[in-house]
Specification:
The protein has 1 helix and 6 strands. It has one helix at about 75-80, and strands at about 5-15, 15-25, 30-35, 45-50, 55-60, 65-75. Strands 5-4-1-2-3-6 form a 6-stranded antiparallel sheet. The longest helix has 7 residues, at about 75-80.
């Protein structure tokens, strides 16, 4: 599977952990992902590349970052529903 580029669109706190919602920059599935990372990501600024097959993630600049993809969906409403 090819790399998909995502932009961080929301940040929220859950059980003392920061979670990030990212939206795919192309019309491909999954359109949205929820991630956790030890790094601080910035809403509306940070862009990441995700290789869904291997779960290798890099900044758009190519630097590898460690993060965990918690869930994915094509509907932003479903992403928010899963965390309530």
């Amino acid at each position: 599977m090819m790399n998909m580029r995502y932009k961080i669109i929301d940040v929220y706190q859950q059980q003392n952990l920061k979670r990030y919602i990212a939206k795919c920059l192309k019309q491909q599935s999954p359109q949205f992902i929820v991630i956790e990372s030890d790094r601080t990501l910035c809403k509306e600024i940070d862009i990441i590349d995700v290789e869904h097959g291997s779960m290798i993630t890099t900044w758009a600049t190519g630097e590898k970052i460690a993060l965990k993809i918690l869930k994915s969906s094509d509907s932003i409403e479903k992403i928010y529903e899963l965390d309530t």
